[in-house]
Amino acid sequence: MRKIFVTGGAGFIGSAFVRQVLEEQPDVEIVDYDALTYAGNLENLAGLDPARHSFIKGDICDRPAVLEAMPEGCDAVFNFAAESHVDRSIHSADEFLRTNIIGTQVLLDAARAKGVRRFVQVSTDEVMGSLPEDDSAFFTEASPHKPNSPYAASKAAAEFVVRAARETFGVDAVITRCGNNYGPRQFPEKLIPLMIANAMNDEPLPVYGDGQNVRDWIFVDDHCRAIWLAYEKGRSGEAYNIGARNERRNLEVVRSILAALGKPESLIRYVDDRLGHDRRYAIDPIKAETELGWRPQVTWEEGLAATIDWYRENQAWVEHIRNGEYREYYRQMYGAALG
Ligand SMILES: NC(=O)c1ccc[n+]([C@@H]2O[C@H](COP(=O)([O-])OP(=O)(O)OC[C@H]3O[C@@H](n4cnc5c(N)ncnc54)[C@H](O)[C@@H]3O)[C@@H](O)[C@H]2O)c1
What we know:
Blueprint: E1 2-7, H1 12-24, E2 28-34, E3 53-57, H2 63-69, E4 76-79, H3 86-91, H4 94-113, E5 118-124, H5 150-169, E6 173-178, E7 180-182, H6 191-200, E8 205-208, E9 214-219, H7 220-233, E10 239-242, E11 247-249, H8 250-261, E12 268-271, H9 286-292, H10 300-313, H11 315-322, H12 326-338
Parallel strand pairs: 1-2, 1-4, 2-3, 4-5, 5-6, 6-10, 7-9, 8-12
Antiparallel strand pairs: 9-11
Helix pairs in contact: 1-7, 4-5, 6-8, 6-10
């Protein structure tokens, strides 16, 4: 059996990755390490085979705890653990710098100490900043780092500490940079689950600014498959941009959700724009397609329908979150604007 160490595996993408690996890679055992912050949720890991998946609650910045949890000679570390929400980073950046940068360094040091073969850093297209609305401009692996939010700056810095570990110590590392993910189990502070949850409850849908910002959406399972292929086939020291060539304006996304749920567009409320709101992200995934043999398998229409169905069928999951710390966060973010 191959052992892998997954951090942030109780979050949205990490838990989808853990499920997919257990299903598709019968020779792999997973140690899943997660601090269970507000975004981590053990309900995301319900029903997994305990013989091949063990969960350890811990902080990636806690060096002794990481060293104890990471199995000797495990084949790979997949670093999903992060503070991941741009709005929260604008409110307070400290935790973003701590987890996303220091935590990555601690994991790299531990991976070296434990003889881990490969380190996979799960990064984001946001490290490359914002694009003009000109259709011909895309993020490529040659695009410069130009992060615009504290979140993006912390993820860019994390890429640099990964690079430094490779250059200085020869750590075998690959980086994946993906666009906006959507799918089941995404925390309802992010655009798509927020809009689905509010629409299901006939509550106003807060849309930033003019709603014309463009994001490049990918179904979470397609992202996870790309991460696995980067681990198996990626060249050490390389970054791979992951995107499904699926650019959508925020307003179009919101309208599609309302239409699918049979709810009126009168629920839309325009609220003050996010500070420094990036206008457009768009990824050229040609390197991942050619070098990794990766292709997205889920269309936007299929993925959005599956996501909406999941939230419809799992309203208890959403309610547990909406009744917790999230209630106060939501009041702070949108309370005044929505009355
Ligand atoms: N969501 C997206 O659209 C997207 C796109 C590209 C890249 N990414 C990256 O993918 C990764 C996962 O994103 P997500 O959307 O699943 O995030 P998420 O917020 O849903 O999950 C993050 C997980 O990390 C855990 N965590 C946070 N701080 C920790 C710490 N100090 N120690 C251990 N665990 C900690 C949380 O408990 C949570 O389970 C992140 O690195 C993010 O930057 C996300």
